[in-house]
Design goal:
By secondary structure, the protein is mainly alpha-helical. It contains 17 helices and six strands. The chain binds carboxymethyl coenzyme *A. The site of carboxymethyl coenzyme *A has 20 residues, from helix 16.
């Protein structure tokens, strides 16, 4: 095993870090990423010193090296494979961005056509899966159904558990990216007791999703271009965000050798939480609560600052962005353009603007560098498009899926990947003896 003092990372380490523990000193290599981010490589810390690090919430811990997404939270920069997120505002389809993330480069025309053809071919679910939908209560949360049914895919596609090469991986990626749409739409239709609408091979990704969700057997939903563009952009802006909670979950599950379906299903569960993807639902319920007159925006902000209240200003704050979230800025612009066109004067948009104004000038939020995040405006847009609130986080999941897949594959292809297995500092009972029941007080 290389020694922490050794130069096993010398080629990437322009510097070294010294740790002083009592009388002893230890040197650790400092590694640098392509955007000059620096990390102290402590891979041999425990072997050398007998100590581990403690970093609750992993705010200072790099879990891997990754070439997929770059974020500079202080400068509000987000890039996919080097391309600034702002450049996706007008041009590509979500599927092209998905391929960019997954392949590691912009696809050629043929690659994009082949992948799109796969998405069309794989959109149908095995009829056996329909019976599984029937087993869920109508009231089942769509995120629970989504996770369960993605895991179910691994029962129907056992041939895709072991992936031999990039070609097999791309087919599997296309299966999941296509089928998640059908599953999402069926989950929604099931919750409403509506007949399932099958995918239409003539429709592109976004229109096909809305068709399966919103068409009726006697009436085909027609997706206005403004809606297609908005949803396309929402998916693109959610497509990856480096080592966030759900992506780290996908990587952690994948590190055990679990297949892509199982790993992604776990990612859906992590995303569901209100501090992560579930925040878009919470934002809307916050806005509705204020609209119903229970609280004014000023009172809500006051409550969010009160540490005893357990209330947070939902859609505000981010672990990484400490200046602005570029995704939130782009979505705020879309909301301003789209919502008046689709819904006229939306009082919730007015309340969101008011909350933002109050928070951005309030010392509590300014000092803690809390700004609107991607979830602050996405719910208002989704609502205007006609997506019900309980499907908001499902929409986030559809958008984030290419990122999860790209990370799973990157890890899978990285030589020397080890099973993810953090340590802990034990704080429980020291050695004690088992007491038979009759001897217990
Ligand atoms: N409202 C009020 N106070 C807040 C908020 C908020 N939204 N966010 C953070 N704070 C306070 C927090 O109480 C703490 O104060 P103090 O230093 O006095 O104890 C300080 O700001 C730092 O907060 P933290 O919880 O240590 O920050 P974190 O990096 O662990 O959490 C976060 C990040 C996004 C979970 C958090 O800001 C939050 O809960 N925001 C609301 C939920 C939300 O919008 N989540 C979506 C995140 S973006 C999309 C995604 O990742 O899914």
């Amino acid at each position: 095993m290389p020694n922490a003092n050794s130069d096993h990372n010398a080629q990437t380490a322009p510097d070294q870090a010294t740790l002083i523990l009592g009388e002893r000193q230890f040197q650790f290599p400092v590694i640098e990423g392509s955007e000059q981010e620096r990390a102290i490589d402590i891979s041999y810390l425990r072997a050398e010193t007998g100590h581990i690090t403690l970093d609750q919430g992993y705010g200072n811990t790099g879990s891997c090296q990754s070439a997929i997404t770059f974020i500079d939270g202080d400068r509000g920069i987000l890039r996919y494979r080097g391309i600034p997120i702002e450049q996706f505002a007008d041009y590509p389809h979500f599927t092209e961005v998905a391929l960019l993330l997954i392949l590691g480069r912009l696809p050629s025309e043929t690659e994009l056509e082949d992948f799109s053809a796969d998405l069309t071919r794989y959109a149908f679910l095995d009829e056996g899966m329909k019976h599984q939908f029937e087993g869920f209560p109508r009231s089942a949360p769509p995120m629970a159904i989504l996770s369960a049914m993605i895991n179910s895919l691994s029962c129907f596609h056992t041939e895709l558990h072991e992936l031999e090469d990039e070609r097999e991986f791309l087919h599997t990626a296309a299966h999941i990216i296509s089928k998640i749409r059908t599953i999402a739409a069926f989950a929604f239709r099931h919750s409403r007791g509506l007949p399932y609408i099958y995918p239409d091979p003539a429709l592109r990704y976004v229109q096909n999703l809305l068709h399966m969700m919103l068409s009726q057997p006697y009436h085909q939903h027609v997706c206005p271009d403004i809606v297609r563009k908005a949803l396309n952009l929402i998916f693109i802006l959610h497509a990856d965000h480096e080592q966030n909670c759900s992506t780290s979950t996908v990587r952690m599950v994948g590190s055990s050798g679990a297949n892509l379906f199982a790993s992604v299903a776990a990612g859906v569960c992590a995303l569901w939480g209100p501090l992560h993807g579930g925040a878009n639902v919470e934002v809307l319920s916050m806005l509705e609560q204020i609209h119903e007159g229970n609280l004014t925006p000023e009172e809500y902000v006051k409550l969010a600052k009160d540490k005893n209240s357990k209330v947070r200003l939902m859609g505000f704050g981010h672990r990484v962005y400490k200046n602005f979230d570029p995704r939130a800025q782009m979505l705020a612009k879309v909301a301003e353009e789209l919502v008046p066109k689709l819904s006229g004067d939306d009082p919730l948009l007015e309340i969101a603007r008011r909350l933002e104004d109050i928070a951005l000038t309030d010392s509590y939020f300014v000092e803690r560098q809390l700004y609107p995040n991607v979830d602050f405006y996405s719910g208002i847009i989704l609502r205007a498009i006609g997506i019900p609130t309980n499907m908001f986080t499902v929409m986030f999941a559809i958008g984030r899926l290419p990122g999860w897949i790209a990370h799973w594959w990157e890890q899978n292809q990285t030589a020397g990947t080890r099973i993810a297995r953090p340590r802990q500092i034990y704080t429980g009972e020291t050695r004690t003896d088992y007491l038979p029941m009759e001897d217990r007080a």
